[in-house]
Amino acid sequence: MEIKQKDFMRLEFIQGLIGSGVFLLLALALSEDKKSVSWGKISRLMLSHVLLLWCFLKFPLCQRGLLFLGKGVQVLRESVLKGTGFVFGYLGGDTAPFVLAEGKGSLFIFMFQALPMIVVLSALSMLFFHWRILPFFVTHLSKVTQRLWNIGGALGTVMAAKLFLGQTDAPFLIRPYLNSLTRNELFSMMTAGMATASSTLFVLFTLLLEKSLGSQAIVHVLTSAVINIPSALIMSELMMPERASKTEGTYVAPHTFINSMEALTKGTLDGWKIMGIVAAMVLVSLSLVALVNAALSSLCVCLTGCAFSIEQGLGLFFWPWIWCMGIPKEEVFTAGGILATKTLLNELAALIPLAKACTLSKRSISILSYSLCSFGNLSSIAIQVGALGGLIPERKSELARLAPRALVAGTLAGWFSGAIVSLFI
After folding, report:
1. pLDDT tens-digit profile of 309-321?
2. How far apart are CA 353 and CA 366, in angstroms?
3. By C-alpha distance, which of 315, 158, 163 is closest to 252?
4. In degrees, to the nearest 5, what angle opens at C-alpha 315 toward C-alphas 293 and 114?
5. CA 308, CA 304: separation in Å to the nearest integer?
6. C-alpha angle 351-357-362 in degrees, rounded to nearest 5
7. What are phi and psi of 167, to 5 degrees?
8. CA 418, CA 125: separation in Å to the nearest integer?
9. Measured between alpha carbons, how far is 167 from 189 in angstroms, rounded to an integer?
10. Full-model pTM
11. Contact (CB, 8 A) for 91 and 112
């Protein structure tokens, strides 16, 4: 029995190894100019990708640091529940005036207990901007990324900012240089936007994955936020190689506040808007999935006598790529349906059902988290074209052409990270 278990793990290792190569070759096959690909740059990015992953997942000091942050997340969560409990009563986590019957419903309400975290983190982010904490980290991390990955100052600033900001916020830090970005730099920025998320959602992702991954949820969420950046640059270089001079640039303050109270107010109002948008998107997304499933199931029952769902259909389409990520063959269809839901709708539409009930193993969920905790979905195409088009209207047609390719590159970046992760866990 022991030999079979070792062989099984060996097979999963081979899957991840094959998959990482497949995703690189797929990106190369979609390349605009294969001859111009800088393999030196690719090698540096891949080396940093693997070393960062090893540090986060295997180096004891980094592990302890991430678990310490996990305790900080728990403290933050409890603090937010104090506020939601006061504002929303038992709906927000305060003591309920009744007792639920065993197995009937839940006192956890996503809208009033989970989403307010976005408002609090948005307010804190603006305070950190005003106190020059975030600018300090972005400026110094930018210098590291430029030297480590051989990229220009403008792109290096955005890549550093992507650790904290979303796909529409980070470009504001280099607004004066946006119009001067090369085609590769613009594409890299858009791809990184698809392959990563925003710090305002990290805690929410952690809460949704805690049921499956426990204390390791924060480890994988934060690790994905870091390693998906070099992964996005790898896919960008393969699909759209750099053929021009790098664009130099530095951090430019996107906000100026008179005092901390103004910063806090700005962050709170912005977070409240984001909370409403997220709630509306989740509501519509899950409703549409249920509606399509009802229609599809009825049609299939009439034609074949068997029910069928969109998750099952998309799972069939995605299963080869899921297998390449190192996930066991008995779980590929379930994992494929979850990943397809995320790509077609959004990450929360996939994570919420995953948090409620899932037959996937802990290892498979860990691997999938590197694709799920990102903004890579169809709606992000319109978001990027609209937001970036407002900043550089003269390049809006170019943005419209690049956005679908950026979605593909960002998706491949998450898959590639998942395949490499499968070699470590």
Report:
1. 777 777 778 888 9
2. 16
3. 158
4. 70
5. 10
6. 75
7. -70, -20
8. 29
9. 8
10. 0.89
11. yes
